[in-house]
Specification:
CATH architecture: 3-Layer(aba) Sandwich
Largest sheet: 4 strands, mixed
CATH topology: ECO RV Endonuclease, Chain A
CATH superfamily: DNA mismatch repair MutH/Restriction endonuclease, type II
Shape: elongated
Oligomer: single chain
Distance between the termini: 29 Å
Number of helices: 3
Helix content: 10-25%
Strand order of the largest sheet: 2-1-4-5
Strand content: 25-35%
Number of strands: 7
Length: 161
């Protein structure tokens, strides 16, 4: 591929991203009845291992990520953006610490996605042991929440006007 600009208008299915990138993500969006775009799903960062918790610096290795936005219905790529996560590291770190505290305290089973703002510990089904508790907890993955992705998508829309 000669340039990323050539991606606009291609189907997301035509793009060969091997999935191994830590800073390039494809994100689908849908339209509300009023015409506003909204993220179709959360953005998975990694599976959450309660006994080998990923360090914040490893979770966010880069200050920015490259986002490829596509329309879920047409599957066409419509927007490319470099988004600077570093602008939100304070909020992301608070969320990270809230999740880490629940793991250390043995209260993962009480953790709700609403307890954090941008970074979530999304349930993926199945129960596993958790540290410092006899209770089982749902398996989880760390995600950028739809609310955060909506903030990013709204900023793209503002730039385009």
């Amino acid at each position: 591929m000669d340039s990323f600009e050539k991606l606009i208008g291609l189907s997301v299915d035509e793009v060969d991203l091997d999935g191994s990138s830590d800073f390039i993500f494809t994100i689908g969006y849908k339209f509300k009845n009023c015409g506003q775009r909204y993220p179709a799903s959360k953005l998975k960062l990694c599976d959450l291992d309660y006994f080998d918790f990923v360090e914040f610096s490893n979770l966010f290795k880069f200050e920015a990520i490259f986002l490829i936005w596509f329309d879920e219905e047409s599957r066409l790529i419509t927007d490319l953006e470099i988004y600077h996560l570093s602008n939100d590291f304070d909020v992301l770190f608070r969320d990270y610490y809230r999740i880490l505290s629940a793991i250390r305290d043995g209260t993962v089973h009480e953790l709700r996605e609403g307890d954090t703002k941008y970074l979530g510990a999304s349930r993926i089904g199945g129960k596993v042991r958790q540290p410092n508790s006899e209770l089982l907890a749902d398996r989880r993955e760390l995600v950028l929440k739809k609310k955060y992705l909506q903030k990013i998508l709204n900023e793209i829309s503002v730039k385009c006007k």
